[in-house]
Amino acid sequence: MGDELIQRQVALVSYGTRFLRKELELEDWFHHGIFFGARFQFRDHQTNQLLADDFTQWLGNLAMTGATRLSLHRAADLGLKVADQAKYAIVVHYPGCYQAWAGREEQPVWMDFLLPSAAAYAGDLDCYRGAEQRPGKLDVPGTDWQQLAAAIAADLEIVVPTGDAPLCVQVQLSEEWAKMPLFVGPPLAHKILSTLYREQAKFDNDTHPKNDSSYYHHLDAAGAAAVDHRGECLTSWIAEVHLLCANDVGDAAQEKQPLHRMQEPPPLQSEPELVAPMPLAEVQPPAKSTWINRIALAVAIAVLSLLILALANIIARFPWLAVLVALPWGLYMRQKK
């Protein structure tokens, strides 16, 4: 749902701006396939009253009240709290002020978790609540797409191809009239986002846990960490380009500023710490018990004494046998010393 939500927001802001600028009619794009199956609600921030249950009614009212354009921003940058899935807010620009519309999650008062829910079969619900209008102007700088393409190519070590084919995301409808570019923008902007989508699909395939043949699962810890960090950079760039594509108005007079990341890039990867091997503990031989030695000596003396008594007659006849009997005893005592 998250990817489809941000794509609907990109399309709504891009095409909605063209409508407010009187460059496109609603009839030219309201049947865009990206909106198929999704429901829209626009509510008052104080009373929660339903103001419009469709984005066409919402845009029509904005046009009558003097709105000049739309833009897409991170909700956190505007100090807004949004639903978990909706990280961004749509800003409506007026000549002397602007108003943010943040995504909210509708929670019913009556809810029984023991009953089956049919809400999933009704499609996604995009609910927005308008905040208080803020005085002043919210700047939305233009994008130098050549500079952006060079920065992405250098960071991700990829090549951004050139061409005129617009980016058309996959939608549920197969009719030709529903297949439209995701946003209105220059060809290079479409190529940048489509290239990032392709790299994201490749990354997801390579790192999928069931893809046993992927090189990723044969890397060491440092190599896998490097690939994961590149994936984080890729995700950050996609979020960045989503905002830039939605906010591009194709106006040559729109001031272009040096590249400044709207989406916070992931932290730099630190070198993995080398774990020093633990020193091998010197194994000390078990200490011999003094009492065991004494008992063994007593047993040995007793056995030797019995042996001498048993062989007394033989030793008397052959005295040299006494040497053989005393020899083990002498060797034992010498080893003890």
Describe this structure in words.
The structure is a single chain. With 337 residues, this protein is an alpha+beta fold. It folds into 3 domains: 1-110 and 117-140; 141-259, no CATH class; 292-336. It contains 8 helices and 7 strands. The protein has helices at 2-20, 55-64, 145-156, 187-206, 221-247, 290-310, 312-317, 321-336, and strands at residues 39-44, 50-52, 69-74, 88-93, 97-104, 125-130, 134-135. Strands 1, 2, 3, 4, 5, 6 and 7 form a 7-stranded mixed β-sheet that branches. Helix 1 (2-20) runs parallel beside helix 2 (55-64), helix 1 runs parallel beside helix 5 and helix 4 (187-206) runs antiparallel to helix 5 (221-247). The chain is elongated and about 140 Å long. The mean pLDDT is 83.
